[in-house]
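Summary of Year 1 activities. Much of the first year was spent building the evaluation harness for sequence design. The harness presents a backbone, in tokenized form, and records the residue chosen at every position. We chose the following record to illustrate the format because it has been used consistently in internal testing since the harness was completed.
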């Protein structure tokens, strides 16, 4: 009889422990789910960066994976730490550009331009925005500014050629395509775009958009 009582008490104790462990498991799973949008990839965690730089890199990571809401969360965390951090402001503008909210994108790009006026990626993104909104002369102006800083900035050169096409400036477009093919041939990452540029030169094929 005594043995049975002890057995039932032990069984009850194990049941209580199991319930506690289950509750803890649910709690930690909930915490993981609520915070996973800001979880940093190992390469970003291990990089020797300040916290706001880490959050900016995380935002860029999410942009590349088209997780724009997560990107905004990370980038805003960067700005909480350093409100005038130009690259994070630029990347927020890039998120809104990709979401098609051109007014917000321009607002953030202009804020970033006041802080980092010579950033080629920023100038290229502003050029893309102006191309998307049919302000082609302004687009060319910004692509040229980016290329003046970095003459081998493939994205800006490619986008400049597309803009000349949009403007109906055939000669300028063809010359820009030829120059792009010439200098981009050294980059394996550009091969798909080089093939597209060759098609554009032959006035055929489907256009690949490039940012």
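For this record, the design step produced the sequence shown next.
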């Amino acid at each position: 009889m005594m043995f049975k009582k002890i057995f039932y008490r032990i069984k009850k104790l194990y049941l209580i422990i199991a319930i506690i462990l289950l509750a803890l498991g649910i709690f930690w799973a909930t915490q993981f789910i609520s915070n996973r949008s800001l979880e940093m990839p190992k390469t970003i965690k291990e990089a020797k960066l300040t916290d706001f730089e880490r959050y900016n890199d995380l935002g860029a990571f999410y942009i590349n994976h088209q997780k724009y809401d997560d990107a905004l969360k990370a980038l805003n965390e960067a700005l909480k730490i350093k409100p005038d951090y130009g690259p994070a402001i630029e990347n927020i503008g890039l998120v809104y550009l990709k979401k098609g909210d051109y007014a917000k994108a321009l607002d953030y790009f202009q804020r970033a331009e006041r802080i980092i006026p010579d950033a080629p990626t920023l100038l290229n993104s502003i050029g893309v925005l102006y191309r998307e909104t049919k302000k082609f002369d302004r687009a060319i102006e910004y692509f040229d500014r980016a290329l003046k800083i970095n003459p081998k900035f493939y994205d800006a050169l490619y986008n400049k050629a597309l803009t000349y096409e949009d403007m109906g400036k055939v000669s300028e477009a063809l010359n820009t395509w030829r120059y792009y093919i010439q200098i981009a041939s050294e980059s394996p990452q550009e091969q798909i775009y080089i093939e597209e540029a060759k098609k554009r030169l032959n006035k055929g094929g489907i256009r690949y958009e490039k940012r």
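The chain has two domains: 41-117, 118-211. Quantitative recovery figures across the full test set are reported in Table 2.
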